[in-house]
Structures are given as C-alpha cells and as structure tokens.
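DM from R.C. (forwarded with permission)

"hey, sorry to bug you on a friday — could you get me a structure for this? deadline for the figure draft is monday and I only need the backbone to look sensible"
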Amino acid sequence: MEPASGANKDVILFGAGTFNYGVTISEDGTLTSEGTIFGATKGGGKVSIKPNLVPLDFDGRNVKAVGDFVKAGEEATMEAPFTELLAADVAKYLIGTVTDKSTAKIVESSEAVADGHYIKGLAYIGRAASGKKLIVVFDNAICTSGLEIEGKKAEQGAATVTFECLAADDATEDKLPWHVIWPK
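My reply, with the result:
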C-alpha cells in the first residue's frame, strides 16, 4: 500500500527498542529524560493499547454503524522478556522488598502494595525505519504478572513481565495517562 502523497513515511520498527523507567516528557511531547533501562530483553517485547468499546444495540439495525459505540475506559500494557534481572526490579515485579545482607540481596514478599512498587514513566523507546525514535510512555504502571522463569538446558532464560498502565490516584477522567510520540 502506497502512502498518500506527501504523507510521513515513518515506518514503525519497534523491534530495536528498550524498556525504560523514569522517562519524562514535556507538555509538547519532547523526551526530557530517557530514564534508566530496565534490563536486557530476549526476543523483543510488546505494547498493547486498547479502548474498551461498548456497542449500542438498536432494534431494526442488523449492522454496526458509525455512532453505535461508547468508549468505556481502556487498557494499556507493556510486556517484555527480561534476561537480565536486578533485585530491586524483581521486588517491583513481585510486590516485594529487598534486604541487603552481607552475603546476598534477598527479595521477600510485602504485605501490601507500596509507593516503590509503582513505576513512574515506563516507556518503550523504539525506532522508525528513518532512524527517528518512536516512544510509548505510561505515566504510571505496575507489574501485574509477577515473575515466572522457565529454565531450559543449553538455553538462555528470560522472565516475561507484564506492566499495566494506571491512572493517577486522584484521577477524575475515564482515560489512562499513556502517550505515543513521533518526534519531529
């Protein structure tokens, strides 16, 4: 399919990207801090943003039509198979705490979700075919998958982790704070 005349030809190539936290953007969409990379991934990752649509049903209409849907919230997730894990990150994945002993760092379960378990500025930073960065940012996120590692003989392991975008605790809107950014 040919792009429209004069259309931007930034083909999305999210494959060569990183998952970062602590990312900040300005009001105009400028990336002001790339934050910190979560760790190396194996096999890429996935970003999913979906509106929750409720279809309206009218007697006598046997087809869906423009105006027949109401948006009732949305869901946004990022999933990545990390092959490099830090104790502090594992504590976030498991809603746990890290204790630094003389011989080891120990991650143990927390009784409740604390501020440190939430992730501010979670982002996937990929590239378009033109080389420009393409960025997806969740202002707030939490790991909803826990940690699952499958060890196999003669194969590098990876822990696939899923993060869910969250509204702020004082949110009054029915939308999530996510941003998909194509820098100029």
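R.C.: lifesaver. The mean pLDDT is 87.
me: no worries. The radius of gyration is 20 Å.
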